[in-house]
Structure formats: C-alpha cells, structure tokens
Amino acid sequence: MTPIEARSLFQKRLTCSKWITFFALFGMALTILALYFSSHLSGLMIVGLTFLLICISSVAALFFYRIFVYGKELKLFCNNCGKFIDWTDPWICGFCDTPNYRTKWNSFLHKCKCCGQLPHSLSCPHCIKLIYLDNLNSNEHPAHMADESLPSLPPIISPDDAHARVVKEIEHKREITKLNAELAKAEIEFDKLCRIAKPDPAKPLGEKLEESFTAFRDRNMAIEMIAKRELEKAEALYGNDPAARERYRLTVEAWREDNIQ
To answer: First and final CA of the chain: distance in angstroms?
Structure first.
C-alpha cells in the first residue's frame, strides 16, 4: 500500500469510528428518554430498547469489521526501500518537534496532537529517505520516528557556506605558496653566503665562528624582514576584515616558526 493510499484509508477509518460513537451515544440518549417517559408512553420504551439493541449490534459489527478487516488492510511500505513501516509507532512532528505516542488517533497518517498539522512527508526509519504522504511532494518539516537509535541525517551545507570554505582554502594555499617562494629566495642567498663564508681549515677558530654567526644572523634577519613585511601588507589588504587579517597573521607566524633557526 502506498503512503497516500494509507493516509486515505486512515482518514476513512477515523470517520467510521466517529460515526460509531455518534450512533452509540444517540441510541443511549433515546433509551434514557424512553425509560423516563415509559410511564406515560409504554410503546416508546419498546422502541427505545429495540433501537438500543440495534445500535449495540451495529457497534459490535463495525468494531469487529474495523479490527479484523479494516485494520489488516492498513499496511504501509516505503516506496524507496520497500520495507514495512508500522503506522502505530511513535513519531515526532516536523512542525513543532512534539512526540506523538497516542498513534491510534494521532498517527503520522493523520495529524499532530499539539499543533494539528498534517505532515506532508515522513523520513523512512530504514533508509532515511523521504516518503511523501500527499500529492504536494513537499520536503519542508518532514516527520520522523521517535527512535534515538536511528541514524541521523547528514548536515546540510548551503552553497554559500561551501563557496566560502573553498575561497578560504584557496587564499590559505596562495599565502603559503607566496611565503615559500620568499623562503626559497632567502635560501639561495643563504647558500651564497655559506659558500662565500665557507670556513678555511687554516683559519683560526674564532674567525670561523664569526663567519658562521654572520651567515646565521643574515638568514634569520631575512626571515624576520619577510614576516614583518607580510604582516604590514595584511593590515593594508584586510583592514576592514578582522577575520581575514587574523588568518593571514596566523599563516605568517606559522611560516616564521617553521623556518627560523
């Protein structure tokens, strides 16, 4: 049975139950009136009792019809995975997030007991895909079963958030590439200085240490100058964007810590 057919059958079942209740109360009222006026109208009592028996028989017949015939036909299957879904299971409304436990009357095939809204769709407890309960095919405010063990839906990332994330990654990679290029230039200059200041075995130890210190100082000072220049550039480029300026600063600091000796 499709979900739309199941909802239509459930609505008919509720209508049948309401008519049963109406006729039962109506028959009881006539019986009470017949007993009250039985001393004046003896025939009315007989009519009332007869009508009461007819009502009781009708209620019993409709009750058994509902339980053994009507109820057996109300079987719902997911039109995505084909698995059975029990319409009497507790469910949570997608409009007000209220759990519904009296599902004989407030099933997801009918309406929520709190807000009175009819759910347009249901999240299948087996495959998590949406099952449309009417012809609107609406994805808004889907109902779902009240079972915490079910797998949760993956978070929905809006296109704007995804685009912003990609832009941030591109900016970060671009900054790292620029700093690595500056570092490569500094490494070349450092190698030149090292070749120029290559210690001569014949030189005294003090002179060797002086040359080593000069090369070490020049390399680290070059790194500090590059980092300072990039930080000043961040102030000019991202003056109105504190978040972007902070990201750029952290990138420069990380590069500086990784390369300074």
So the answer is: 74
Looking at the DSSP assignment, which residues form a beta bridge with residue 122? 131, 143
pLDDT band at 172; cut points 50, 70, 90: confident
Q: Long-range pairs for 98-107 at CB < 8 Å and ≥24 separation?
A: 99/146, 100/146, 101/146, 105/14, 107/10
Q: What is the pLDDT of residue 149?
A: 42
pLDDT tens for 29-53 read 766 666 666 555 556 566 666 676 6
Within 8 A by CB and 6+ apart from 62, the residues are: 16, 20
CA–CA dist 179, 167 (Å, integer): 18
DSSP letters, 243-255, are HHHHHHHHHHHHH
CA–CA separation, 18 vs 21, rounded Å?
A: 5
Residue 46 tokens, joined: 């007989």
Containing 100, the helix (H) or strand (E) segment is strand 99-100
- 143 closest CA partner among 154, 133, 156: 133
Say which amino acid occupies 171: E
Residue 130 has φ and ψ, to the nearest 5°, of -80, 140
DSSP-derived letter for residue 84 is: E
**C-alpha–C-alpha distance, residues 147 and 215, integer Å:** 68
Number of Cβ within 10 Å of residue 122's Cβ equals 24
Amino acid identity of residue 47, one-letter, is: V
Q: At what angle do helices 3-36 and 42-65 cross, to 10 degrees?
A: 160
Q: CA 193 → CA 179, 180, 219, 256, distances in Å?
A: 21, 20, 9, 21
Residue 201 token pair: 């075995």
